[in-house]
């Protein structure tokens, strides 16, 4: 088999989502939900060497030393533009994954999609091994819809049958999140930047590793800092994401669920809510500045908690009035039930509920697409 380093094949690889090329190893990472690599291949066999980082977080148990844990990421393989994967599999660092194999040469468009969220797991490709050739790739141009969010957007536990389950890679299916489902229905290209448990800002008394404002401007701050830590290096110079090279037609911002938890645990709740208002307003303006004036921004909340929805609705109305921004909208997803088919792992929305959320989002975007509404804010709906 011929081996081709990914760094030598970049012009023949199409990527979906935010990517990061690790120059020292030549590894191309695509770590956010539904991050994808796609090639046109002609031949009998195509394999890819994987770089992967597992999730090792263990929920603390008082008085007990929990056992170590390695939860490796899952990917799905698609052929010829199909919406249904031909295979789903767990991958580990150093694996050689067979993407295609046949007795006689065939030509196919082959896509590998990461099903899990960033921060929990990481996936990259190092080399191709092939009997055949990678053909020049012409990516079909599509408008991009970007999803900024937390565990709901990631699809945390959406494939779980047991609501008591904590995070398991096998039970998080990014392809069946409401964002990915809606994007397919609307003929859009999805791009995710989402992490479970994340808030607008990383604030005490519930500190996380990042707030969304600390991730959003960068291609993939998470993997850059993980790799630097593995190598014993100082904090790297973070690679900015090139918004101009891949502008989003729509941005769906679904944050506020974890921010409400922060307010709950703050003693000064009135100040905590004021802090949220300031942080949300600042982030909304940053999204507009980075994406430009033509992007439609939908400020959503749901489907687990709505404590901050009225605050978000009022903020969007204020910003629209102050700036004249006619491309700001709000969306309140229909609430999930905490019993029955709505429920996935850790009481998060199931695939069934994600399909219902996708219906909400599709209806909203089709309304916005009406020519008479493109220049009118419905921020107070």
Describe this structure in words.
- The longest helix has 23 residues, at 269-291.
- The protein is globular.
- The strands form 2 sheets. Strands 1, 2, 3, 4, 5, 6, 7, 8 and 9 form a 9-stranded antiparallel sheet that branches.
- The model is unreliable at 371-381 (pLDDT under 50).
- It has helices at residues 151-154, 178-186, 212-215, 221-230, 257-265, 269-291, 309-323, 351-368, and strands at residues 2-5, 14-16, 20-22, 27-29, 36-53, 74-79, 87-90, 96-114, 122-135, 144-149, 189-194, 248-254, 296-301, 328-332.
- A hairpin with a 4-residue loop joins strand 3 (20-22) and strand 4.
- The chain is built from 8 helices and 14 strands.
- It is α/β, with parallel strands linked by helices.
Short description:
The protein is of the alpha/beta class and 381 residues long. The protein has helices at residues 151-154, 178-186, 212-215, 221-230, 257-265, 269-291, 309-323, 351-368, and strands spanning 2-5, 14-16, 20-22, 27-29, 36-53, 74-79, 87-90, 96-114, 122-135, 144-149, 189-194, 248-254, 296-301, 328-332.
Please describe the structure with a list of short key phrases separated by commas or semicolons.
381 residues; alpha/beta; nine-stranded antiparallel β-sheet; 14 strands; disordered C terminus
Secondary-structure map:
Elements: E1 2-5, E2 14-16, E3 20-22, E4 27-29, E5 36-53, E6 74-79, E7 87-90, E8 96-114, E9 122-135, E10 144-149, H1 151-154, H2 178-186, E11 189-194, H3 212-215, H4 221-230, E12 248-254, H5 257-265, H6 269-291, E13 296-301, H7 309-323, E14 328-332, H8 351-368
Parallel strand pairs: 10-11, 10-12, 12-13, 13-14
Antiparallel strand pairs: 1-9, 2-5, 3-4, 4-9, 5-8, 5-9, 6-7, 6-8
Helix pairs in contact: 2-8, 5-6, 6-7
């Amino acid at each position: 088999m011929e081996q081709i380093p990914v760094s030598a094949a970049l012009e023949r690889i199409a990527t979906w989502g935010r990517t990061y090329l690790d120059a020292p190893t030549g590894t191309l990472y695509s770590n956010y939900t539904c991050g994808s690599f796609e090639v046109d291949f002609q031949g009998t066999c195509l394999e890819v060497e994987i770089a992967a980082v597992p999730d090792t977080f263990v929920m603390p148990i008082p008085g007990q030393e929990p056992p170590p844990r390695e939860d490796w990421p899952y990917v799905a393989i698609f052929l010829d533009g199909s919406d249904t994967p031909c295979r789903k599999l767990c991958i580990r660092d150093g694996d050689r994954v067979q993407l295609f194999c046949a007795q006689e040469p065939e030509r196919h468009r082959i896509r590998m999609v990461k099903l899990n969220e960033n921060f929990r797991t990481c996936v990259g490709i190092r080399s191709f091994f092939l009997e055949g050739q990678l053909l020049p790739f012409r990516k079909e141009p599509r408008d991009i819809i970007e999803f900024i969010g937390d565990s709901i957007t990631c699809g945390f536990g959406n494939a779980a049958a047991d609501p008591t389950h904590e995070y398991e890679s096998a039970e998080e299916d990014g392809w069946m999140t409401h964002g990915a489902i809606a994007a397919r229905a609307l003929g859009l290209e999805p791009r995710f930047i989402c992490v479970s448990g994340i808030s607008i800002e990383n604030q005490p008394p519930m500190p996380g590793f990042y707030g969304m404002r600390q991730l959003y401007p960068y291609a993939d701050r998470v993997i850059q800092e993980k790799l630097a830590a593995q190598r014993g290096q100082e904090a790297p110079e973070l690679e900015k994401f090139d918004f101009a090279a891949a502008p989003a037609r729509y941005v769906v911002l679904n944050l506020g669920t974890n921010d409400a938890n922060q307010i709950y645990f703050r003693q000064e709740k009135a100040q905590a809510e004021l802090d949220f208002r300031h942080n949300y307003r600042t982030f909304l303006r940053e999204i507009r500045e980075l994406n430009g004036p033509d992007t439609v921004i939908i400020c959503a909340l749901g489907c687990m908690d709505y404590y901050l929805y009225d605050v978000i609705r009022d903020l969007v109305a204020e910003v629209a009035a102050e700036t004249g921004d006619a491309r700001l909208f709000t969306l309140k997803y229909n609430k999930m039930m905490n019993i029955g088919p709505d429920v996935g792992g850790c009481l998060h929305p199931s695939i069934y509920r994600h399909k219902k959320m996708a219906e909400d989002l599709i209806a909203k975007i089709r309304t916005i697409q009406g020519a008479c509404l493109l220049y009118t804010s419905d921020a107070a709906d």
